[in-house]
Amino acid sequence: MAERDVSTVRFPDAGPPEDVEVLIVGAGPVGLSAAVELHARGVAVAVVDQAREATLVRAGAMGHTPRVVEHFRRWRVLQEIRDEWTFPPEWNKGIRLVTSLVGHELVPTPRPSFVDTGRGAAEEALRRPQTALVQVFLRHLARHGVRVSGGWRLTGLREDASGIEAIGESGGVIRARYVLGADGGSSTVRRLAGIARQGEHATEKRVRLVVRTGDLSGRIGPAPSGTNIVVNQRADGFLAAISPREWRVYAGPFPLDHEPTEAELLDTARAAFGFDLDLELASATTFYHATRIAETFRAGRVLLAGDAAHVRTPGGNLGEGFGDVVNLGWKLAAVLRGSAPEELLDSYDAERRRHNWRVADFALRRSRRTQATLADIRRIGVPDDADLSPDARQRREAIGTLLRESRLGGDGVTFDERYDDSPVIWYEDGQLDAEPPWRGDGYTDDPRPGHRAPNGVLDPYGGTLYDRIGNDFALLVLSADREAERAFAAEAAARRLPFTVVHLDGTGAGEVYDAPLVLVRPDQHVAWRGAALPEGGAAAVFDRVLGGSRVSPNWREPHMASYTEFYAPQGLRTRGTVIVVPGRGETQRTYTRLGKRLAADAYEVRIIDAPRIDQPDVLTRLGDALTEAAGGAARPLALLGADTGATALAALVASDDTSAPWWPDALVLAGPAGGATGATASWDEELDLRTHCPAHRAVLSGDEAFARDALAVPVPPELLDAAYGRAVELPHLVLVGDADPLVDRETLSRAVKAAPAARLAVVGGAHHDVLNDLQHRSVAAEIVSFLETLGNRLVPVISVESSTW
After folding, report:
1. Where are the domains of the chain?
2. Per its UniProt entry, which superkingdom is the organism in (predicted)?
């Protein structure tokens, strides 16, 4: 019999990175899927887990709804998950209601049809054990270079204004912008964050068993039903195959203080199979029909998802965890990218916690209804499977009728993720008063704001609307008017939002969406719809959807902020931040070319004003400017100074104020000013002293704010003494041009040799503006190469083994 082994999935044992944008604690399906989601959105992410492996015997959820399959498809792991079957797929015959595995069917179950391929949804449900998902997610993350580290136990969290530190049991520290707790119902992250839970405690307990069998094919056939709900006098609940020789069985309920024996549990399992057989108890996991939901899903820089945020009566809780991930992923990415204010993250709690309470209340009601029906059935009495008498047949028919009449569907739980009390949805006038109440057992496509956008097939080759949207914001256009389309596209580009336009004329979608314009969020929820732009235009819509605040475009004029900023290209995770400090006479515009070049290599660049070296408190003012510019900066953080900007930085870090918000991971000093001055007789002479690059000479000549003759201003001796008087334990890259008369090469060389980790790089033919001379491409490449070594103990990625030149 075909069988695949995912009984144990080992987590990688490589250590986690020291610095990351989002640290995920918990390497279960929710934590790993969060890493998949965030990495796809360009976020630097890592995962840690205290365990070293995931085991099949604690199989967890196995059934995955069509909504979950939509997520698998967008994450590009669906086919790989399908391929990870652990028992032959032909065992999947729907969920059968039976008296035992070999007994009587109580309610007929429609069988899959080989010839009828019609279906009512774009995706279908799927059954795979959690370890199969974990294995697929781990492979996917490994292919994309995302670090997952087993055996790393979290013991502390320490938050400050710019980030949060996760402290490990062995003393290791990981710094992140945010920590996402996906570490289960007994979440350490939730406990350390001081987040309490609400909800009803259980009054009894149940046990989920995994039992191992021998070869049963002679008794149950080569292709038995893999998923069954058993109802008889001794057993009730799921009997579901995990592998050809491992099955999940439910036992109970038991009083809270009762510990059932192994014999007691195995007797229940045998009753579910319906015949006597040898069984080995592989695992027994207690669970409860109860609701425990965190009081908030966000506390500062700590976020919760999956069981860490909500535990409830079994049935779809893993799917709700995936829903958490999809809701949170685009919001975290937008905040980290600078496209949205941090307040957007509050909407994650507002939307998902309300939804989870609805689902939990429905699950508890359904469980109680099921238990009441079971009591009625047992009063009727479930006949022995061998009893074929007319009375037994009548009782089975009566039981089947009871089951049909009491059965509640779950379409609303699957698809109705409506967010009807959200601060980031543009609701229509009167919409919330007119909407029908949420029902867990029913669902009809609803295109109004706050609802999951109806999905459907767009082309004859099977492509769906969600395929077309991908990870983007999407404007669905069902009219010939292009004005709104252009307005939304321009506003999205200004805010650096992933955005696409989908033209749906002639697809039949107009009958579903009932509006010519529909804005869909990256989590496939309708954010706004209308016939025309509202007052305030597309900007007003995005203001609401992104948390009520306008954000900056990719390049900000200096008068709009105290620093100019350049971002990594859309879709690439930010590899770190570089804060540039100009020198004498220079402005923020002086370093536009450098900013764009470093940003193209996925570094965020922030350029502040040049320090006024004639002010006695120049270092205090510089520290204040760096503190502002370092706010929310992705690590590693490098400070890059030119001329007196370099000298002032060297003096500032000599204070060894490692607790300062701006304290860097590395320093780049370009043409640090020495004692020499650069007085010149003309502008052309000053340009010759600075740079021979025609493009940069034009930039300087055209910048009205540039202060000419500034190189004639001497550097205060006390600033030079502070800059060169003390070696600092920071990685340094020092760049000087060999045609630069203003650099004190002898003093600089001594300082570099005295530093614990410094390199002096001399640029052939370059002048004082070494960052902006003819060699600017090579200089930028040298800076990037240096930055790339910061995560590798300053060891270059490339080494030359042999060369003939």
Report:
1. 8-366, 431-545, 558-792
2. Bacteria
From the number of C-beta atoms within 10 Å of its C-beta (0-12, 13-18, 19+), residue 614 rates as exposed
Question: Percent of the chain at pLDDT above 70?
Answer: 94
Beta strands at 732-737 and 758-763: parallel, antiparallel or unpaired? parallel
Closest CA to 356 of 459, 254, 446, 438: 438
As a whole number, mean pLDDT of residues 303-312 equals 93
Residue 795 neighbours by CB distance under 10 Å: 8
Tell whether domain 431-545 is in CATH 3.40.30.120. Answer: yes
For 8-366, which CATH superfamily applies?
Answer: FAD/NAD(P)-binding domain (3.50.50.60)
Phi first, then psi: give them for residue 490, nearest 5 degrees. -65, -40
Q: CA-CA distance, 749 to 385, in Å (whole number)?
A: 91
**How is residue 466 written in tokens?**
């969600």
Q: Which parts of 509-663 fold into alpha helices (H)? A: 509-513, 537-545, 592-600, 618-629, 644-653
CA distances, 313 to each of 187, 195, 365, 417, 500 (Å): 18, 21, 9, 18, 39
Buried b (16+ CB within 10 A) or exposed e, 125-160: bbbbbbbbbbbbbbebbeeeebbbbbbbebeebeee
What is the C-alpha radius of gyration for the chain, rounded to an integer number of angstroms?
32
Minimum mean pLDDT among 178-182, 284-288, 490-494: which range? 284-288
Residue 248's alpha-carbon distances to 208, 282, 459, in angstroms, are 7, 10, 41
Residues 282 and 56: their CA atoms lie apart, in Å, by: 10
Which tokens is 228 given?
Answer: 């069954």
Residue 256 tokens, joined: 């809270």
Backbone angles phi and psi of 270, in degrees to 5: -65, -35
Between CA 5 and CA 477 the distance in angstroms is 47
- What whole-number percentage of the chain has pLDDT above 90? 59
Cα gap 162→310, rounded to integer Å: 28
Pairing assessment for the beta strands 758-763 and 517-520 based on DSSP bridges = unpaired
Residues facing residue 533 across a β-bridge: none
pLDDT one-digit tens code per residue, 151-160 = 999 999 999 8
Give the C-alpha separation, 232 to 17, whole Å: 53
Compute CA 189 distance to the chain's CA centroid, rounded to the nearest angstrom. Answer: 16
Question: 558-792 maps to which CATH number?
Answer: 3.40.50.1820
Amino acid at 369: R
